[in-house]
């Protein structure tokens, strides 16, 4: 059965840079983030055996569409250090050598790219990320799931409710109320996860909560009424754009033996050997 693996590229590079022991090439350039990215993606491919693989890319921060909603969106994040920026370029080369297509969209984040591609693909989709923002792309029928990096588990609609406290279709509503510190917006003042869950359970959605605002009891109702304008603005930030302007993508993944040579040339013999073993496992599987 066809299956698409979408990898949140920047998220995987960051996790690899900080999660793998430092490695440097013969020129003294750090490469552990790039090595870890290739290894992580290969492990995911080995786990899910997708027929299609795409790396979802972020547009530059200064060009993000969401900055039209909040001008300083993500400005709280420190600029990446030089070694980290180097990792991104090398990691791009690594996955290109592995035959993986990189896809981005003007003004959009990798989350939006992944949501758009997941909506288009008619069969099974696995989105690999450490970012729970993409829980909003999970479908109730099980067609789209999120492989949550760090937890190393495939999150479905039930798992989303367990981890987030709300089902996938309310993730954006929930984040609008409680905020997202990683993206730099605070949510409605005085509304925490429990109050947000209560409001959404009572009303069914943020839009309905706004209509029913006078019927939400207690301090949570008061805080909500005071912060409704903020909630609407943050909802626009939280909502995934599943219709990003992306031309048709050919992402059929067919591993090639020459990738082993390319990775050796990039001074990543361990990754090259693992890729060689993956190729052999495919041959063994095909001949059974």
Salient structural properties:
alpha/beta; 47% helix; 288 residues; Rossmann fold; 10% strand; DNA polymerase, domain 1; six-stranded mixed sheet; 11 helices; 2 domains; single chain
Radius of gyration: 21 Å
Query: Strands of the biggest beta sheet: in what spatial order?
Result: 3-2-1-4-5-6
SSE ordering = EHHEHEHEEEHHHHHHH
Q: Could you tell me the mean pLDDT? A: 93
The largest pleated sheet is described as: 6 strands, mixed
Please provide a written account of the structure.
The protein folds into two domains: 3-160 and 241-282, Rossmann fold (3-Layer(aba) Sandwich); 168-238, DNA polymerase, domain 1, CATH 1.10.150. 47% of the residues lie in helices and 10% in strands. The protein is built from eleven helices and six strands. It has helices at 9-19, 32-48, 82-97, 110-120, 157-164, 171-178, 193-203, 206-211, 218-238, 258-265, 269-286, and strands spanning 3-8, 52-56, 101-103, 124-129, 144-148, 153-155. The radius of gyration is 21 Å and the shape is elongated. The model has no long low-confidence stretch (mean pLDDT 93).
Topology summary:
Elements lengths: L2 E6 H11 L12 H17 L3 E5 L25 H16 L3 E3 L6 H11 L3 E6 L14 E5 L4 E3 L1 H8 L6 H8 L14 H11 L2 H6 L6 H21 L19 H8 L3 H18 L2
Parallel strand pairs: 1-2, 1-4, 2-3, 4-5
Antiparallel strand pairs: 5-6
Helix pairs in contact: 1-2, 1-3, 2-3, 2-11, 6-7, 6-9, 10-11
